[in-house]
Amino acid sequence: MTLMEFFGCAFIAFGPPFALFLFTIARDPMRVIVLIASGFFWLLALLISSILWYAVVPLKGQLAFGLVFSVLFQEAFRFLFYKTLRMADAGLLMVSQRSENEHVDIRDFSNKHIMAYVSGLGFGLIAGAFSIINVLADMSGPGTIGIMGDSKYFFWCSAFLTLCFILLHTVWGVIFFAALDRKRYIPAALVVAAHMLISCLTLLNQQSSNTNSTIYLASLLPAYLLLAVSSVAAFYTAGGNLKNVRAAVVCRQGRYEID
């Protein structure tokens, strides 16, 4: 039973992100490189956060302290990765032109939203892995939680929150990079504020128990609502519109319309 729970939660958390990686990134070596590089920048943010948490001894027991500075460092390193990627654009374009036989799509460098999407997914995947890996290890057995007054919904809530944060990082990457490219700093600031808000709401999950499991909804519902809003914003930021969606649906159905 615990093994089934392990695989179920793992597939909930990483199933859709893995599908995104498989169908949109895996075949292109340059996208894979950018994905790994963005994950490395997230690890640097985690390292700096850990050093700060370890150094400030009086506040080591306060989870909110570590969470707030972790979010700030993550967004700072998202900005640093944006600057690094923009400085490397010329070099990446040159490499792509010399690698025509390696499935490198030159459109990746003319359409900057693609690389923003890839870097956001890299941020999300490594963040999700670090947030749930210990939980997955615990749920694999030999027992499970819920007997000693803990909430029996802890595991699936962790899985759905991990999935949500991975997807949020993906769409936040598109919005954040586009805002900086266009020098519109309010959307970039809103990304930071949204990240801080949803992360702080997860602190409420500490109060859950078998008799008060609905507290998880206080973080899950706002997180998925924000994901829906952010996804629509990223869609329009990348140049999408309802006419394009309708045209794609018509093409998939094998119908062609002439305006």
TrEMBL record:
Transmembrane segments: 6-25, 32-56, 62-81, 114-133, 153-178, 185-204, 216-236
Annotated localization: Membrane
Membrane topology annotation: Multi-pass membrane protein
Swiss-Prot/TrEMBL keywords: Membrane, Notch signaling pathway, Transmembrane, Transmembrane helix
Record InterPro entries: Aph-1
Similarity comment text for this entry: Belongs to the APH-1 family.
Protein name according to UniProt: Gamma-secretase subunit Aph-1
Source organism of this protein record: Aplysia californica
